Amino acid sequence: MNNSRIEYLFEKLDEQNLPLEPFGLFEQWFQEASSSGIIEPNAAALATCSPEGKPSVRIVLIKEINQQGFVFFTNYNSRKGSELKNNPYAAITFFWDKLQRQVRIEGKTEKISEEKSVEYFNSRPVGSRLSAWVSQQSQEVADRKTLEETFATIKNNYPGEEIPKPPHWGGYILIPEKIEFWQGRENRMHDRILFSTVDQNQWQRKRLFP
């Protein structure tokens, strides 16, 4: 294990220069992450929880970010989909190492409309649309050969580019209740600014110990 210390060189979070709501700051940070050379700045860790309280986490790609929340797509029958059905609360974390920043988001998820799911599905490459039919996500498969044979069968069933969206596939939006911005600072005196919802249209802001 490498025990060397990271030298923190980037900006500070100063309350005097911060907005009263989190979305403007997130948009700024996301654009800076996108311009920094990070391959997939929209990759985030998504944590869900089973009915027994057992957590699970995986990386997903956040495909839309707006004033309502953070949108990702998946198989509704996957482990994450099953857990969100029983407990819609979830958390996501973006980590942008080049900028020594992370953003932690907690809130409640909802399925987006079928129309928006279809719209996004139709924008995906053909192979990705076919694989949505192939994969019984999170379920056991006998071997790689079975997976590839199933893909070939589905491809023969849909030889063109007109591939319908599977009924078990679509999007969720995580509607944030808390958004925390973490900026690495020297001597481990990191900046942590937490935005929390007071009501649907109002946020409060506070600084946390690192």
Can you walk me through this structure?
It is a single chain. The chain is α+β, with helices and mostly antiparallel strands and 210 residues long. The protein has a domain at 15-118 and 168-207: Roll (Pnp Oxidase, Chain A). It has 5 helices and 9 strands, in the order H-E-E-E-E-H-E-E-H-H-H-E-E-E. Strands 1, 2, 3, 4, 5, 6, 7, 8 and 9 form a 9-stranded antiparallel sheet that branches. Strand 5 (89-96) and strand 6 form a beta hairpin. Helix 4 (126-134) packs across helix 5. It starts with 22 loop residues before the first helix and ends with a strand. The relative contact order is 0.19.
pLDDT below 50 for ≥5 consecutive residues: which ranges? none
Mean pLDDT, as a whole number? 93
Note the beta-strand portion: 25-35%
CATH class of the domain at 15-118 and 168-207: Mainly Beta
Count of extended strands: 9
**How would a crystallographer describe the biggest sheet?**
9 strands, antiparallel
Helix content: 25-40%
Number of helices: 5
The helix-and-strand class reads alpha+beta
- Annotated CATH topology of the domain at 15-118 and 168-207: Pnp Oxidase, Chain A
Give a quick rundown of the structure.
By secondary structure, this protein is of the alpha+beta class.
Descriptors:
single chain, 210 residues, alpha+beta, Pnp Oxidase, Chain A, nine-stranded antiparallel β-sheet, 5 helices, 26% helix, elongated
Tell me the layout of helices and strands.
Elements: H1 23-35, E1 43-49, E2 55-61, E3 64-65, E4 70-75, H2 79-86, E5 89-96, E6 101-111, H3 114-123, H4 126-134, H5 144-157, E7 169-183, E8 191-199, E9 202-207
Helix pairs in contact: 4-5
